[in-house]
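Record type: monomer structure entry
Structure origin: computed from sequence
Chain ID: A
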Amino acid sequence: MSQEGEIDRYNRVPAATAKAVLEYVARQVVEQPDAVSVNETGGDGHAVRLQLVVAPDDVGRVIGRRGRTAQALRALTRAAAVKDSEEVVVDIAD
């Protein structure tokens, strides 16, 4: 492996695409998009854990009826993570 490939492997943000997609879609769903943030927390070994933080009034919007919006957010984020060859787990902070 070349030195450049070695540097790229260690200097990249884990699941950057998934994080960007999750933040973008969440901002479209909530009423207070400035309060949306995505934090990367410790993973469970093989997956990157992303924590979605929204305003207290918007938690219900992000979860949706019977959790359907939350399921959709998780599915989109997992699909975006494939681009970076990562696995992600999405938590919604309450």
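Annotation 1: The two ends are 44 Å apart (CA to CA).
Annotation 2: The chain has a mean pLDDT of 87.
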